[in-house]
Structure formats: structure tokens, C-alpha cells
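Entry, Tuesday afternoon. Goal for today is a structural model of the target with adenosine-5'-triphosphate bound, before we commit to ordering more compound. Inputs were pasted exactly as handed over by J.K., no edits. I checked the ligand SMILES twice against the vendor sheet because last time a stereocentre got dropped in transcription.
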Amino acid sequence: MGATIRRDEGTGEIFVARVIHGGLADRSGLLRAGDRLVEVNGHPVFGLEPEQIINILACSQGTIMFKVVPITDRPVNNQTMLYVRAMADYSPNQDPSIPCADAGMAFCKGDVLEIVDQTDALWWQAKKLPSTSLCAGLVPSTSLLERKQKEFWWSQPFPIQAGLKTLSTVDEEEDLMAIDDKCVETDEEAFESEELKEDDSDFSSNVAGVYLAGFRKSLRLCRRRKAQASGYGQTCTSRCPSSCLTALENPYEEVVRHKRHPGDAHRLIALIGPSGVGVNELRRRLIEIDPKTYQGAVPHTTRPRKSYEESGREYHFISRELFENMAYNHRFIEYGEHRGYLYGTSIDAVKQILHTGKVCIIDIDPHGIQAVRTHELKAYIIYIKPPPADSMRLTRKNSEIITNYYINRPFKDEDLQEIEETGQKMESHFYQFFDHMIVNDNLQESCVQLLTAIRKAQDEPQWVPASWIRPTNQA
Ligand SMILES: Nc1ncnc2c1ncn2[C@@H]1O[C@H](COP(=O)(O)OP(=O)(O)OP(=O)(O)O)[C@@H](O)[C@H]1O
């Protein structure tokens, strides 16, 4: 019927506890939360348990008659519409504390919910969007879900701090020894020459005079090692202690429907995915298709400039002191150290491209998420998901992967397995931050999907955090 009842334990009286928005009782307009129930089909209900009253209802046929004493002070519904993105999963069937599991609504991380009633401090009523259902369902309020999350937190098998690792599992020291012993491909000299090779392949493909910056292998290797050494969560915590944890712990994030004004800067496009899935291949192809529209951010480094390099083209070459200063002032989306030099992608390098009217497309790893989900960058985050291992084995037959030890070598089964596992962990921890997902199976199709998603992100209304549109001090 779309209503729940409760018994006042002191007096034995039965009251309508809540009327579900859009349900039968609500549509009839005859029952309100707070009404006192006196009789059901002629049976006095005073002193009965709610279950006994439900039994009377269940055995009734045809018209059901309620005798009620209406509540005198009807609460005025002056609530404004609230839309939130769920940052956690919820299942009413596994929640013993829900007043009525049948009236509950399950949701998953990333779902957008329309909160239609917040009168109850513990149980809100919501619809999942897009929704065709007239009837709302019960969901825990923010404070209740926070409480539940804290209880749940201790039973998590993978707390965020230790949840993810990258393709290699050895620690930094073992790693260097392994390089000396087994893998001559990546000793310093070979690495340098690989960088040179990379210069040929990356920077000579300067389409229409545009250099493809931000694809340097040293930058990608540095990220891989940093993640390996510290774990995504820890790095994140140390870099952005308050904002990051707040976002990870908030069970709901208020969102609004927002369409970019044609005169505004484009939204930053951030690709994320397990190392080796093809994030950079997709990014590179996109820029090559239309370099006048798409561009990568030029990274910063403290390594010395080589004779053929230009500052601001391959990298912004800066001193260690300046780099550390920028890091201290949170000017980097992410940064790390590789072979004694610092590398990073700065917020200003992204803004520089956005100000030219182009679409800036970068790749980030999970600890860069909070740095790009801001009012000024309004990042649209696209998760590049690995296809099932069998399919990957086929499509990657002739492809090569960068690992900690080898610059380019054919994919092995353990790489595919590791990409799949890392992808699963990424999804399970960070799915709520992904605006779109592309399964990178067939490369051509993935490119088309990427182009379409980016166009939609720039030109069609999207759900974005409300703080981006009504910035607060915290945002
Ligand atoms: N759909 C695909 N089909 C076949 N090969 C692919 C596909 N996507 C990517 N590749 C190839 O897989 C290899 C790894 O891709 P890429 O370098 O883009 O990885 P990545 O996700 O950027 O990871 P990392 O930054 O660690 O290198 C490359 O050789 C690339 O050409």
C-alpha cells in the first residue's frame, strides 16, 4: 500500500509512520504520516503489534477500510529537491535495521538518486534516476549511512589504503636488483636509448605542428613505481589529507544537472585504467585524429634538458626546489620520482590548454582523482576497462607492454591477469567517480566510443558535484 506503521510503546496506539512517495496511500491522498489508526476493516487495532495488523490486511479482500484520527499539525512539505550520487553500495535485503525491507531501495556506487522526502532523520525516500517508477523507496539518510559505513569499514577485506597495486609486485629494492640481474633491457643506457627511440616515435609524429606531450615512458614508469612503493591510498592521503578522505567517506555527494556554456572552457578529460589496458594508446590516437581540438598537458620534470628538447614542448624543465614548492602548494595532479628526477602533471599545465579553447586529455591514476574533480577543471573521468582475458589475449597478440623491467615486450598471460585484477580493484574502490566507462576491446571501436563520450561530456547536460556550480569554501 506504500505506507508503514509504528506502535507507540508507551500508549499502545498505532500510527502511520511514513507514506511512501508515489505509492497507493500517497496517491489516494487519504493517509498521512502521523495519522492515528483506530480500525482496519472494523477490527480495533489499539494495542496490537504491527505484524498483527499487517496480517489483518493480508487476509482482507476487496475494499480495505481504515478508521483514522488525522494528525492535527500536518508538516508542511517545503523541502527542495535534492539529487545525490551514491558513493557506497546499499542493499535493503541485507540491512536488518530497515523498518520494512520491501519498501527499501537498493543502489550501487555511482547511481544518481532523487531524494523526494527527507522528513525522517534516519530514512529518506528516493528514486533512482533515470526512473520510470512512480513509487519511491526507503534509503538510509546521510547520517545513518555514515554510521553503517563505519561499521562496515572494519570488515572491509581491502581498505582503501592497501587496496591496489600495480603490475609489478616487487618492492623498490628488489626491483633494482632484478633489473641488474635479469633484465638488461632497462639499464640506464638502454633506457636512455629507448627514450631516444621514443622521441622518434612520439615527438616526430607531430601532427599539424602539434607535439604529443605527456607520453614519455619515464613519466609512466615513475608513476608505476610510485604506486608500487606506496599504494594508491597512502599517496593520496599524504597529498590531500582532508578533501580526499572526505570524498571517500561521504556516502552521498550532492549533484546537479549541468550543461557547459558554449563560451566556457572545456571540461578536462581524464582517462583512468589499470596500467597496460591502453589508456595512452587511446589518448594518443584521439590527439592524432584531431590535434587542433585535443591536446595532452605538458609535464614538469627536474631532469636536465637534452639538446634536442625544448622547454614547454616535451617537458617544462624546472629546478628541484621549484618542483618541490609546487608540490607543497598542491599544484600537481600527480607527481613522483624516477631515477632521481621528479616528474609530474600540473594543474596549471592543464589550465594552459583549456584556456586556448582546446580539450585537454590526460591520464591519471586513482590518487589523481580528487585533484581533477574541482570547480576549475570539472574533470569528466572515463574509466578504460580491460575486456575479459581471453578477448585481451586475442586483441593484444601483436601489441607490446611497458613493465618495470622491459620497455616493450609482448604481453604475457600474467600481464593480462594482473591488468584484469587491478581493473577489478580500481572499479570496486573508485567506480563512483567514473563518469563513463569504455571496455577497450577493439581499438577502433574504443576510439569511436571515446570521441562520442567526450563530445557528450562537453555539449550535453551531465550530473556534476553541486559544489562545482555553487562553490563553497571547501570545494
Ligand atoms: N584495444 C587494443 N587492441 C590491441 N592492442 C592495444 C589495445 N589497446 C592498447 N593496445 C596496446 O597495448 C599496449 C599497452 O597500451 P598503453 O601503452 O596505451 O597502456 P597504458 O594503459 O597507457 O599503460 P602504461 O601507461 O603502463 O603503459 C600498447 O602496445 C598498445 O598499442
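DSSP finds 16 helices and 22 strands in the chain.
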